[in-house]
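== Sequence, structure tokens ==
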Amino acid sequence: MTTIAETGTTKVIKGIVIGAYGDMERCEGVLEDIITPKEGGTFMKFHGCPYLFKGFPLNEVIESMGLAKALLSFLPREIIGKSFLFSSMVALLFLFNRKRFYYYLNLYFGMIYDRAVVRVNMLPERYNAPTIEIKRAFYVALKNEFGVFDKPLKDYYAAEIRSSKKLLKSVFYAKAIEFICFFLEIDSAYRLRVQDVLGHRHKDIKGLFDMLIKREKDEALIRNWKSLSRIILLFIKINSQSRRIIDNFLLQIDIDEVKLDEADWYFSLRRKGYDFRGISLEERLKEKERIEKERGFTPWGIVYKNQL
């Protein structure tokens, strides 16, 4: 159970964090403090560990993301993708009524955005560097493609964008990336994977997905990545504007801001579901032991001692 103690203007939250150090057994951490520096970001400090973990994934927030994640993946993969009738209708709508197609996309992503990002209302300064950089690079790509608007794209409503094809497209992209960045900030398992592949210079989105799929070990996630890659690659093949936006995004992104840093690397060492940096779990476990020996800390024993 987590307890919260007020110390001036700071809330010190203590408790056991499941999966703090990875997705294997004995990966729990004792939460010592939540750190929110003035310069931005949110970090968890675990007892006995010198590295700060990026983010503070509250259980209630993660659980509230479940429906949004299901809507985002289940509908296109299991309903539209597996039905010739639905797939044909979507294709015909895109080919012959592009404006209506983007209007429906705005309704779809707007609903997900409103029920996840807006409802939680996470302050921009509480995001960490990797997701801030992903968002920045994507908005630069949107600006290069669509120009400057009167207000932030995420603040437009359906009634405002209905009459403008330019807004229909740009607002859809903006709300999609706002949700993706929020999701990555909350779910470290996905964020670390994305950091791993974006830490390399890719010429196109296909190279990014190829690396992601090659390093993934979870069979369910392999299927999800393959389905997502097929959808996105098909979309950009028939839509040159989307291809330009994604290509520009990959050119704009600062690799040094998104790649796994020393702390991210340490917290990825006990994750068996994915080969971070292309290195096997066995080799990463040896790296974990080397780091802990050199720096002189053993967080695992501390956790289980406190649980007794």
